[in-house]
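Running this now, will post back.
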Amino acid sequence: METKQLMIGDWVLINGKPMQIQAINDIDGEIMAGDELYCLVEDRVHSEDKIEDIPLTKEILEKNGFKWLITEPSGDITYMHSEPPIIIVKMKYHWFADIGPAGSTKMPFVEVGWLNYVHELQHALKLCGINKEIIM
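Update: finished.
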């Protein structure tokens, strides 16, 4: 994981514990979380911290207001968040779409990218102009 992949407010696992990033030092490859400084650069002598992505799961989606919509024959599981704009997250092939407000006659479709991790969902929501705090 690199600091370039992260933003302030992102959730990551630090030594197995979910923590939210408070600050990022891109030059030294460090992040601050829980008022402590952690190093992302593995070859740094003082760094024994294990910093990992948090996998996006159906439990996390459901905790954040997403509801199961359908399981397709391919094994894809589709979740949606009903507050406008309607948000659809598809698990397995991991795509995200913002399809506009409920009841809209036009259904714009924006494919943001592959989603495997919580911080990627946070970034996708921000790209769609949605300021939603993710509950872990």
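The longest helix spans residues 118-127. More later if anyone needs it.
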